[in-house]
Amino acid sequence: MRFDLVDLQLFLAVADTNSITRGAERTNMALASASERIKGLENALGVALLSRGRRGVTLTAAGENLLGHARIVMQNVETMRGDLAGYASGSKASVHMMANTVGLSEHLPKALAAFLREHPNISVDVEERESTDIAQAVANGAAELGFAAEHALPDNIDRFPFSEDRLVLVASLRGEFSARRQINFAEVVDRDFVGLTTSTALQVHIGKHAARLGARLRFRARLRDFDAICQMVAANVGIAVVPEAAARRCAASMPIMMIRIRDPWANRRLAICFRSLKALPRPARLLAEHLRAAAKT
After folding, report:
1. Architecture of 95-159+271-295 per CATH?
2. Which residue among 24, 69, 162, 170 is least packed, with the fewest CB closer than 10 Å?
3. How confident is the model at residue 161 (pLDDT cuts 50, 70, 90)?
4. Is the predicted pLDDT of residue 81 greater than 80, yes or no?
């Protein structure tokens, strides 16, 4: 077999864009050269990797298999670069991490700030995703670390617990639910809600559970953070589903109340996940170890 890292980088770009043309552009390669390299890769492996159509390309079964291997190879290359970069004076390193909405807004900022203070030559790129997407990204090497709900993680992904997180219903002290302490989500899906913007992972998660009940939540307002949401709830604009940590913080200064959601999906354990701690690049491994220590404090 004769192919190189450039071939694998091109193949990953083509797979991500479903297009040889866009894959060539992403890797700064001429289209003719990219096409030849893909054909050469298929010839070297003895299988068709792409199914070509009018609207682009899709991966064959063999292509899907190669995709996982290619991501691992490129991840190992990045691991090598990261480990060797530590020997260069004044070098900078970066860690790519994915986190769900709750982790990104409520749990990670303090721990990440402490890590970045201790490691001035390391930067952290955190991307918000839903927990199931985070699990897939970590499994195929698209992200080094993940912060996700543990129930969404498959057995082949390593993890350690970070914290427990409960989603609760928040309502105005002057609203119709002021006497309730527990509630089923089915009882409120037809009420007015205040929520996060539609692009956030948590809002997608909540919307899916509403859909399973045959409902589509009706939003009076969509906002960017939990504090703003709770302010709207305090004004009796609507009710909201937010992390318990955010609800407790806001309830200390706002006329809102927390109501426990009985549905099992509202009780979640949050975890830091990765494919293999030993295989992580040194900067990512340092961050994982820092977060493990932060989880115990």
Report:
1. 3-Layer(aba) Sandwich (3.40)
2. 69
3. very high
4. no
